[in-house]
Design a protein that fits this description.
two-stranded antiparallel sheet; globular; single chain; alpha+beta; three-stranded antiparallel sheet; 68 residues
Length: 68
């Protein structure tokens, strides 16, 4: 899988960030959620999955740029 950087809300361009893959999917880079109460609210977490937290504005900014 290859990634193409879409953007970040970080001044340094670090995390949180979003990437588009050559498979037509999106990769999210952010801080891993470790709060047990928040994790217990997640549904259907499969082996190998985790949750990351990113600012809402990161998703809305990128959505405006990449969606028709």
């Amino acid at each position: 899988m290859r990634l193409r950087f879409l953007g970040s809300t970080s001044e340094a361009g670090a995390c949180p960030s979003l990437y588009e893959t050559d498979r037509g999917t999106i990769v999210v880079q952010g801080l891993q959620v470790v709060d047990t109460e928040a994790l217990s609210d997640l549904r259907h977490v499969l082996d190998g999955e985790t949750a990351v937290e990113v600012p809402r504005e990161l998703l809305s900014d990128i959505a405006r740029r990449i969606l028709p």
